[in-house]
Amino acid sequence: LVSGDGALPPGRALDLGCGSGRHSIYLAQHGWDVTGVDLVRDAVDSATAKAAAAGVKPRLLQGDVTELGRLGITGPHELIVDAGCFHGLPSKMRDAYVPEVTRLAAPGAVLLILGLAKHPVLKGVKADELRTRFAGWDLVSAQSLAGAEMLRYGDGSPMLRKAFEKGWFDPWRYLLRRAA
């Protein structure tokens, strides 16, 4: 979505559940005006330090992804990235998340959700739920990430690597596009 053939032209991006800033920093390095949000203060502090070390300045905020308006975030955004946030939200929070994301999305915006379809604790996320919840959006693709792509996330943790190898989490990449 960000580099190579078919890349989106840089614009405004929103990184929901930005964690330590990996995606926010990457987007900023590729010319995007990025706002990252995470509930965990330590994660935002880490992201801020990593962004400074990388020489980029995404806007990084500590806050709730279901209350983006209260954080002063305004739209429109052409790209919204959720790498592991939505799949952990309970239903009531998902009910608040979807209208907030939709309000901030430009017509034709792209929403990338990386999530686990199953997990021993988290609710998970599946394509049918996204089709139902995200009215006014088209589910462009749903791609299983089981295998080598996810194993690289387990490089630092033998337990995480084992979980991916055994297929305990069933990771997916969902790409949605808001109706124009």
Number of strands: 7
H/E order of the elements? EHEHEEHEHEHHE
Instruction: Tell me roughly what share of residues is in helical segments.
Output: 25-40%
Q: In this structure, how is the largest beta sheet organized? A: 7 strands, mixed
- Give the termini separation: 18 Å
Measured on Cα atoms, how large is the radius of gyration? 16 Å
The chain-level mean pLDDT equals: 90
Helix/strand-derived class?
alpha/beta
* Low-pLDDT stretches: none
Counted by DSSP, the helix tally is: 6
- From the spread of the alpha carbons, the general shape counts as globular
Order of the strands making up the biggest sheet: 3-2-1-4-5-7-6
Estimated share of beta-strand residues = 25-35%
Explain this structure.
It is a single chain. With 180 residues, this protein is of the alpha/beta class. The protein is built from six helices and seven strands, in the order βαβαββαβαβααβ. It has helices spanning 22-29, 41-54, 91-104, 127-133, 148-151, 158-166, and strands at 12-16, 33-38, 59-62, 77-83, 105-116, 137-144, 171-178. Strands 3-2-1-4-5-7-6 form a seven-stranded mixed sheet, sandwiched between helices. α3 (91-104) links the parallel β4 (77-83) and β5 (105-116). α1 (22-29) packs parallel to α2 (41-54). The longest helix is centred in the first third of the chain and has 14 residues, at 41-54. The chain is globular, with a radius of gyration of 16 Å. The model has no long low-confidence stretch (mean pLDDT 90).
